[in-house]
Amino acid sequence: MTWNATLALDYTRQAEKTVAHFRHSGPLRILQSLYPEGEGICHNVIVHPPGGLVGGDTLDLAFSAGPGAHGLVTTPGATRFYRSTGETALQRTSLSLQAGARMEWLPLEAICYSGCLAENHLTMDLAPGAELIGWDVTAFGLPAARLPYAQGSFCQHIEVPGVWLERARLKASDTLLMDSPLGLAGHRCMASIFFVSGSKLERNRRQAALEVAREVIEAHELRATAGATSPDAQVVVVRVLAPLVEPAMALLRQVWQAWRGHFWQQPASTPRIWSM
Prior knowledge:
The mean pLDDT is 95. The protein has one domain. It is mainly β. Strands 3, 4, 6, 7, 9, 10, 12, 15, 16 and 17 form a ten-stranded mixed beta sheet that branches. The protein is globular, with a radius of gyration of 18 Å. It has helices at 175-179, 203-218, 245-264; strands spanning 4-14, 17-25, 29-30, 42-47, 58-65, 70-74, 79-81, 89-97, 102-106, 110-112, 116-126, 131-140, 152-160, 164-171, 189-197, 226-232, 235-242.
């Protein structure tokens, strides 16, 4: 049996409050909206009761934010791509921001189990004046449980149309990619955090964002396998390789906190679900 589901969430600004409205079909839900930072920023948690995707499953998620709205979206646990008998498991996420909107896309990691055939697509479309902080974390196998990523294929697609595109297909059988110093160098977690703007960033603001991120990296245990760059005037990104998810996620959270302060003069308010 396959699970196909859709979820659409729209953030709108009503007076001084960001309000979330959502529609769904299949096993995808949004938990109650929370306002730990006040009414201007709405926190939401995506719930997928089946707990993972198998071959043939498709999840379509669409999130939008109107002028002046600010939404933060996360998950209570990892997205799991399980072993497939031949069909592809697909997750597609679309983030669309109108002028003056802000969004934070902060899901927990995706785990590729051995034997999976999976694709994970993220597309971000921002109008001039909109800004977004997001991240993507992918783990291959469960090294701590001695369950390696020995078979399977995973395709990752991250795109800001016309601005930035990263696409990779990682096959377990491709030992040159998985283990070579030119590839993952034996690491089994790859992660990135990105700041995306709908307009070109001022040079000083972009350069300062790189410096802030590099200061965080230099003080972290993963400094040898992490780096900050700006592939376009609308994008700043930090990439990291790690043996396990936990140190990579810790680094991304520190950069998120630093960028929140730098770009938005907003202290970081950690979603409550992360500590449960």
